[in-house]
Amino acid sequence: MSVSGRLRARIGMLLIVGVCLLAATSASAESRQPAGSERQQQLARLASYDDASVAPGVITPGRRRAIAAALVGLVSVVIGGLALARARRSG
Predict the structure, then answer these.
(1) pTM of structure
(2) Which domain holds residue 21?
(3) pLDDT single digits (tens) 30-44
(4) Is 52 domain-assigned?
């Protein structure tokens, strides 16, 4: 693979990573800050919970988001590793 081909591949990977990061940050920013009365309701609900209110096997919305983020990260690492291996092999 020529130098320009490698450069194009790296720029393409950076663009994909940038799009993924923008999508993840905008999605988390939307769900992070509720409106005033919603925020007060959330705080009241949190204050009423005790530590054992959620069973270990239950997937809550927060856990679901964390799992999705971990999967996106894992897929990105695998794709990046495959791209690096391919670039080294053909170069």
Answers:
(1) 0.42
(2) 1-32+61-91
(3) 555 555 677 777 777
(4) no
